[in-house]
Amino acid sequence: MFGLFGKKEKPVPVTDLVWMTDTGKKKGLLNILQKDMTVVLVAWFEDTAREMETFLQQEGIEYSILSQRQLRSSQTTGREVVFLEHYPLYKKEQETFKSLNAAKITVLSSLEEPLLKQFGGERISLLMRNMGGMEEEAISHNMVTLSIQRAQQKLEKKITVDQSGISAAEWFRRNVG
């Protein structure tokens, strides 16, 4: 009747690729595009879209990056969608993922981004360096994805009104302080 005994809705499967640095993430994006120029690139924040389009142009690649607001399922149905960052709030991100009907969703992150910095990204980066990790190597594991989801859910508990921003840093200034 009220969903008290209903099953919890399963999250949309996501592949997380996390690099130590933003530079490593950009190199990772180049590798993805070298393998498949048909992926749909999406940014949650305007600054990310601009920064990545500029980077790709400098590398001689003309590629349109969509903002999440521009996204329509007709553009993504049956295709691989690569998000250039996570949205800080889990529910909003999952709602978007569900609406896409994508064949695969991948999210690129770096430990230097505001979301991961909030939850110890700098310490993890130092640990990875000490263990011989390379800037170009991405971490991808279900435990990483679950950790990011928990971080997003933890933020959700603190946020009463989601105030948008043109960058992740601005979003955190407006919403977290």
Major sheet characteristics: 5 strands, parallel
Structural class call reads alpha/beta
Radius of gyration: 16 Å
Shape: globular
Q: How much is the average pLDDT?
A: 90
Distance between the termini: 40 Å
What would your notes on this structure say?
With 177 residues, the protein is an alpha/beta fold. The protein has a single domain (15-175), classed as P-loop containing nucleotide triphosphate hydrolases (Rossmann fold, 3-Layer(aba) Sandwich), CATH 3.40.50.300. Helices cover 46% and strands 13% of the residues. The protein contains eight helices and five strands. It has helices spanning 22-35, 46-58, 73-76, 90-100, 114-118, 121-130, 142-158, 168-175; strands at residues 15-19, 40-43, 65-67, 80-83, 104-110. A five-stranded parallel sheet has the order 1-5-4-2-3. Helix 2 links the parallel strand 2 and strand 3. The radius of gyration is 16 Å and the shape is globular. The termini are far apart. The mean pLDDT is 90.
What is the secondary structure topology, with strand pairs?
Layout: E1 15-19, H1 22-35, E2 40-43, H2 46-58, E3 65-67, H3 73-76, E4 80-83, H4 90-100, E5 104-110, H5 114-118, H6 121-130, H7 142-158, H8 168-175
Parallel strand pairs: 1-5, 2-3, 2-4, 4-5
